[in-house]
Amino acid sequence: MAPTRFLSALLLLASLPTAIEGGFFKKKHRRQKAGTKYNDHDAVHVVVNKVGPFNNPTETYRYYSLPFCHTHADHEEHEAAAEEELPGGDGGMDDGGIGDMASATSRRIKADRVGAERHKQRLGESIAGDRRETSPYEVSFQDDIEWRLLCKSTLGTKELTKFKEAIHNNYFFEMFVEDLPMWGYIGDFEDEDAILGEMEGSHTYLFPHLHFKIGTNKAQIVSVTVTTERDRRVDITNVQKPTTVQFSYSVEWFEDHELPWKMRMSRYADSRFLPGSFEIHWLSIINSFVLVLLLTAFLTIILMRVLKNDFSRYLELDDESLEEEESGWKLIHGDVFRFPEFPVLFCASVGTGVQLIVATFVLLGLALTGLISTTRRGSILAGLVVIYCLTCSIGSFVSTRLYFQMNGKAWVRCVLFTAGLFPAPVAVVFMWVNTIALAHGSTSALPFSTIFTIAAIYALIAFPLTVLGGIAAKNYASHDFNAPTRTTKVAREIPTEVPWYRSRFFQMIISGFLPFSAIYIELHYIFASMWGHQIYTLFGILLFAFILLIIVTSFISVALLYFQLAREDHRWWWSTFINAGMTGLFIYGYSFFYYFHRSGMSGVLQSSFYFGYMSIISFAFFLMLGSAGFHFSLVFVKHIYSRVKCD
Fold first, then answer.
1. Is the dihedral angle over the CA atoms 427, 430, 436, 438 positive or is it negative?
2. Helices marked H in 155-281 — which ranges?
3. pLDDT value at position 1?
């Protein structure tokens, strides 16, 4: 329980409210606690979050960047609007019906709620681009509202132009009741050409009426949806003509006994607003698993047979004929353990890769056990930040220990390289995309308080743990490399004439493509979750795919290493690391395919975020797989050279 409490405390520290943005002393509203048990007529708060183009999920803006209502209409305004909304006469209501409707829907109107006031947020929510604010909607528990005026506003050219541009860019809005999100479109357009756009006779409509449907179970809110009514749409095609718009809403409550509160998020995978549910193609997953089994079995059989023949031949030779018969990997036994160039960078890369592997397994494990909520907005991102910081000592320990085993002296430099190898590129990409987001006025730009919180976590937790890991490796880890053969003073010349299929470039392509083929199918779902509106919950499948990826990468790295040693090339340290990490480059290449052929993303802001952060993710895979491939290869090299007589 202690580690769990410690992690919870750190997450609590990370979720400090963004008190700096907007002023230190500006009041912020506390969130309505999820799972609250209501009494009849208790106030239920509708929280607005953001708007943005549906195809560009990162390009989001404040909800009130569009001219929505900031205040609620009072009793008299509602009654006057109700008479216009449901006039008496044929097919309508009589005067008594209008009065009853107005009275029933407005007797509880207080008009005391003001919109556009900030809500307190967690760290993960700020990272995800949320900017939750109050709204003037007056909703009370179990009180149905047939129709209620929110506000009546005359929109001028400036306001109409904003709405029209948003509708033509396919803007959606996001709201919350407790922690339950709901989405809807701002408007629609008709009779427009797909290429030429707006033409004569086309129309642009604004949806000013929202219908909230709220499900309850045992006095708790378990489901919310919002829909727009086309019958109440307003034509705003002509932006030069001022238009009076009545923004209104209605509320419907119902009992949802089949949905318990703990399962309230399960229905979002089937939401009609989200583009399709996650349907795992089990046949494809099985095909990937079979591919991995066949590939590893094939490599194992080939390597074992080849190595068995090599061992038999070398062990049968006597001392006199040994030098005459030496060839292939046996010939370079005096050079194979010659340490690589740039040892500080190499050790830092290996250590950071191990740290990222451990952090990934911990994150997936916490997601599977439910200790990190996979449905709460931004919880995965916040958890990743904290877990990375907590595992910094592991990366530093591994890198510093390996550096000492290579007879390194500048261990402090190694520790500093390890501390900045991954965070430095992240910081560079972040500064670039955050600057673009600020220039566009997007909520994707992190507020200063969130940046300060992350920087404080790194400075107060990550960096000290990195230093402690290096000190622990210096004082307590073994500094003996335990090489089975002695290294000669002069390096052997490496043959330059090799077949094209044994060239370094061809090996890099093979070592990147084969592991990538094992995870290609799952990548589509991951990308749809990261760069779309889908909610990814299949972390068991993701963990399985990640394990398969490491296994395939390691086996292929060992196989290619054998062929490299067989052609008497002893520079295997960097080549093995790079070969194993090439899958990261293939993942980045797939991101281009997904962007142009599987998504509707566009624009400078969305493109900067997408390609910038995909480069970081690909770099992380490069480090993780490179480190995994190197460690398996090191075990392999030590094993084969310890089995033969080399002196």
1. negative
2. 157-168
3. 43
Does an H or E element contain 255, and which? Answer: strand 243-255
572 near 633, Cβ under 8 Å? yes
Neighbours of 642 (CB within 10 A): 12
For residue 97, what is the enclosing H or E element?
A: helix 95-106
Calpha distance 397→38 (Å, rounded): 52
Cβ(256)–Cβ(223) under 8 Å? yes
What is the pLDDT, as a whole number, of residue 221? 94
pLDDT for 21 equals 41
> What predicted TM-score, i.e. pTM, was given to this entire model?
0.85
Query: Residue 166: enclosing H or E segment and its boundaries?
Result: helix 157-168
Other CB atoms within a 10 A radius of the CB of residue 52 amount to 27
**CA neighbor of 209 nearest in space, from 224, 180, 187, 182:** 187
Q: Round to whole Å and give the CA distance between 614 and 589.
A: 10
Nearest to 388 by CA among 362, 359, 363, 415: 359
Residues of the chain with pLDDT under 50: 1-25, 88-107, 272, 274-279, 281, 319-325
Encoded tokens for 276: 């399709």
**Backbone phi and psi for residue 219, each to the nearest 5 degrees, phi listed first:** 65, 20
Q: Which residues pair with 171 in a beta bridge?
A: 53
Tokens at residue 97, please?
Answer: 């019906």
| Residue pLDDT, tens place only, 296-309 | 777 777 667 666 66
Q: How far apart are CA 183 and CA 88, in angstroms?
A: 34
Kind of pairing between the strands at 139-140 and 243-255: unpaired
- DSSP letter string over 561-597? HHHHHHTT----HHHHHHHHHHHHHHHHHHHHHHHHH
CA 576 to chain centre: 29
The β-bridge partners of 214 are 224, 253
Tokens at 639, concatenated: 């094993």
CB 335 within 8 A of CB 341: no
Judged by phi (left if over 0) then psi (alpha if -120 to 50, else beta), residue 36 lies in beta
Query: Can you tell me the distance from the alpha carbon of 191 to that of 169, in angstroms, rounded to the nearest whole number?
Result: 15
Tell me what pLDDT residue 230 has: 84
CB atoms within 10 A of CB 488: 12
Q: What Rg value do the Cα atoms of the chain yield, rounded?
A: 31
Q: Side by side, which strands form the sheet with 243-255? A: 145-155, 243-255, 209-217, 220-228
